[in-house]
């Protein structure tokens, strides 16, 4: 587990857990503890003090090393693998750096690694490399090759090394971070090329980054590819003559080859910071956990990377609930102190307090989810503040649903204050959500006070439809002339219910009603329809006319009545009248002759189309159908003094009548609209006819030639004959063009 070993100025060492609780206590000396070192496993500890005492012992074993020196021991460092028997090594530093190794006789052997450059102020051991700092600079020793491989000189020699000590920190097994005064260097240990070695060490150090900082460095620690720097800050305001100590700063910086970029900065509040010096602070980090301990004479501050919980805390403190909820949803697997739903509830409460009820209701859908108890609590809260309408459109209405009383409460609220909103909810909400009969009764009660309200009537019809009381719904739809009446009839097969309502349906929409009646003759017979429409001849005529257009024979027994209806009718096209009377047989319909036979002749029909409808396109269509030359002649004669009609004829008669007949009869000087386009079209049509004729001629000639060749081959084919000299003599006597061939064959 993670713990912190803390030495005091009174010679005591405390082991603290990450909450700051003391777990163990050791009496080492009566004076200041200078340095404490732990191996990687955390099972062994090395301690040195100002009175020259050095102790190395196991926290869980009795093995140990105790030594007293006649000078202060400033530093101690255990081999990272000290727990293993092969690595029982540690170093101490006072005026010189000593290496202690346990030999095979279980005795400690001492070696001097360095001396003569003043007091050793810091030492750090990583893998096979030992780095230490003295008054001159920083050295690195390779214990595997027993060689010192570098000497990094101190930059600012004006600073007292005891007041501004060197900070050393290994980032990994080959990267050392050095901080001294205001300068930082990142040193990388590299293997030397064998061809360059000669008498040089097998390794060398390359400084990959070196830069100055604004403040004095009290401690350094790695954080991925960045650095955590603990700064001792001195400020000198313009109105003061002397500097004073400010709060220490903990910065995250991004090192560059010759400078750095500040990522974040925090000023730390520690007790008595105004009385502290640079040497009074330490920065210790716990690898693998991103925990950083800032040690001061009176306080220990624990810093760690912000996680999502911290981020959410900050967002909530700033009342950025939307962002906090989004962050919690994205990282719901990683957050430990927060709950997505609780954050969402805080957001809803915040929106309600702001008076943004619609947004609060919309968030309920996302936050409350499947928690029906929370849903009902929120509905009652919205009722208390008079905002049921806001939450109504977001209530669950699928497989998960609230108690019917909740939905009925909202419907009653809308029915009391907003008929249109009530109708919308009835259309949108499934009928299973509430007690349909209770709502029907409530609507009926309101209609007693406002019986003509179309919104309430339509909604009542929809409620009846859901309750399968289709007859009542149909009555309301017909009363309102509602567009959905036909859909209701078709969907629920209500044809038996409309037999006595045919007139109402046709008064509402004749076209739809007639189409529906004709499409469903098997459900409502023609006789029944005619019977219902007997007192409304104009409706009967519409029905019989459409029946005739669909099938000339179906309504034959009503043709006698239709003759009179057509005679009185002025709405239908003359062409349609002509079609009807053309179909009738005068011999079987004696009344036919009584209805002005001339009126319905082809010429009279054409005249009606031209004079009454003034529709040249219909006239041309009629002439095409009859394919009568005299009819075309009459059409040309009638149109010859009407330029728009001439344009229509020029555009359409080219395939039935020679356009020259029309063009010759046009008066000179008459202005004809779009004449050029019409003539171009005539010429194009003529060219097309010529091309078609030439194509047909070529096909005909090719077919004739092919058949002639086939006939010729057939006639020239040899015919086998049997016989003696009689046939030869016969052939010889009848010499012709081929007689030479016969003679050659002999």
Automatic annotation (TrEMBL):
SUPFAM superfamilies: TPR-like (SSF48452), Tricorn protease domain 2 (SSF69322). Residues 2-305 form the Vps41 beta-propeller domain. Transmembrane segments: none annotated. InterPro entries: Beta-prop_Vps41 (IPR057780), Clathrin_H-chain/VPS_repeat (IPR000547), TPR-like_helical_dom_sf (IPR011990), Vps41/Vps8 (IPR045111), WD40/YVTN_repeat-like_dom_sf (IPR015943). GO terms for cellular component: HOPS complex; late endosome. GO terms for biological process: cellular response to starvation; endosomal vesicle fusion; macroautophagy; protein targeting to vacuole. It holds the Pfam family TPR_Vps41. Keywords: Protein transport, Transport. CHCR repeats lie at residues 514-648. This is VPS41 subunit of HOPS complex. It comes from Lates calcarifer.
């Amino acid at each position: 587990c993670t713990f912190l070993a803390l030495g005091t100025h009174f010679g005591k060492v405390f082991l603290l857990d990450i909450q700051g609780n003391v777990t163990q206590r050791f009496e080492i000396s009566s004076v200041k503890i200078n340095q404490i070192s732990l191996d990687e496993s955390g099972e062994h500890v090395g301690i040195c003090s100002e009175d020259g005492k050095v102790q190395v012992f196991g926290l869980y074993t009795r093995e140990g090393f105790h030594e007293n020196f006649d000078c202060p021991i400033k530093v101690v460092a255990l081999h990272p693998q000290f727990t293993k028997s092969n690595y029982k090594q540690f170093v101490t530093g006072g005026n010189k750096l000593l290496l202690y190794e346990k030999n095979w006789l279980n005795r400690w052997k001492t070696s001097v690694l360095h001396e003569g450059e003043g007091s050793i102020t810091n030492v750090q051991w990583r893998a096979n490399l030992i780095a230490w700092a003295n008054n001159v600079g920083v050295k690195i020793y390779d214990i595997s090759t027993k060689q010192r491989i570098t000497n990094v000189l101190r930059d600012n020699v004006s600073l007292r090394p005891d007041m501004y000590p060197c900070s050393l920190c290994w980032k990994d097994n080959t990267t050392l971070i050095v901080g001294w005064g205001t300068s930082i260097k990142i040193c990388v240990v590299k293997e030397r090329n064998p061809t360059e070695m000669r008498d040089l060490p097998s390794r060398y150090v390359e400084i990959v980054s070196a830069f100055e900082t604004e403040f004095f460095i009290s401690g350094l620690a790695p954080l991925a590819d960045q650095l955590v720097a603990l700064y001792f800050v001195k400020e000198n305001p313009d109105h003061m003559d002397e500097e004073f100590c400010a709060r220490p700063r903990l910065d995250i910086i991004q090192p560059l080859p010759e400078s750095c970029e500040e990522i974040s900065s925090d000023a730390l509040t520690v007790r008595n910071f105004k009385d502290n010096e640079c040497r009074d602070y330490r920065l210790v980090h716990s690898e693998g956990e991103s925990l950083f301990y800032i040690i001061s004479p009176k306080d220990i501050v624990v810093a760690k990377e912000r996680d999502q919980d911290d981020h959410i805390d900050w967002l909530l403190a700033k009342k950025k609930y939307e962002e906090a909820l989004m962050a919690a949803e994205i990282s719901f697997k990683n957050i430990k102190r927060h709950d997505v739903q609780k954050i969402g509830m805080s957001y809803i409460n915040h929106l309600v307090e702001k008076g943004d009820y619609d947004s609060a209701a919309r968030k309920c859908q996302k936050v409350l989810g499947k928690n029906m108890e929370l849903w009902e609590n929120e509905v009652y809260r919205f009722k208390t503040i008079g905002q049921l309408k806001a939450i109504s459109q977001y209530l669950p209405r699928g497989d998960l649903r609230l108690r019917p009383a909740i939905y009925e409460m909202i419907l009653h609220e809308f029915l009391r204050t907003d008929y249109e909103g009530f109708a919308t909810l009835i259309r949108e909400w499934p009928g299973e959500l509430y007690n349909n009969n209770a709502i029907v009764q409530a609507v009926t009660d309101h209609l007693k006070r406002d019986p003509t309200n179309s919104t309430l009537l339509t909604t009542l019809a929809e409620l009846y439809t859901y309750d399968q009381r289709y007859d009542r719904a149909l009555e309301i739809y017909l009363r309102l002339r509602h567009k959905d009446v036909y859909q209701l009839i078709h969907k629920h097969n209500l044809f038996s219910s409309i037999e006595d309502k045919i007139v109402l349906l046709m008064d509402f929409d004749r076209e739809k009603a007639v189409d529906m009646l004709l499409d469903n003759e098997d459900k409502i017979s023609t006789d029944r329809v005619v019977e219902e429409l007997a007192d409304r001849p104009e409706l009967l005529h519409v029905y019989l006319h459409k029946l005739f257009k669909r099938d000339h024979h179906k309504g034959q027994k009503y043709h006698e009545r239709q003759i009179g209806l057509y005679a009185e009718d002025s709405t239908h096209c003359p062409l349609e009248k002509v079609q009807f009377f053309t179909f009738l047989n005068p011999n079987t319909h004696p009344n036919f002759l009584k209805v002005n036979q001339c009126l319905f002749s082809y010429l009279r029909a054409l005249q009606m189309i031209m004079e009454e409808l003034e529709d040249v396109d219909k006239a041309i269509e009629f002439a095409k159908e009859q394919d009568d030359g005299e009819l075309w002649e009459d059409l040309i004669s009638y149109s010859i003094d009407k330029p728009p009609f001439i344009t229509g004829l020029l555009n359409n008669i080219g395939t039935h009548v020679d356009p020259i007949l029309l063009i010759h009869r046009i008066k000179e000087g008459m202005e004809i609209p779009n004449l050029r386009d019409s003539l171009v079209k005539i010429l194009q049509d003529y060219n097309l006819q010529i091309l078609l004729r030439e194509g047909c001629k070529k096909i005909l000639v090719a077919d004739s030639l092919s058949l002639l060749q086939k006939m010729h081959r057939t006639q020239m084919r040899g015919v086998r004959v049997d016989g003696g000299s009689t046939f030869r003599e016969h052939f010889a006597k009848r010499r012709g063009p081929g007689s030479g061939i016969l003679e050659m064959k002999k």
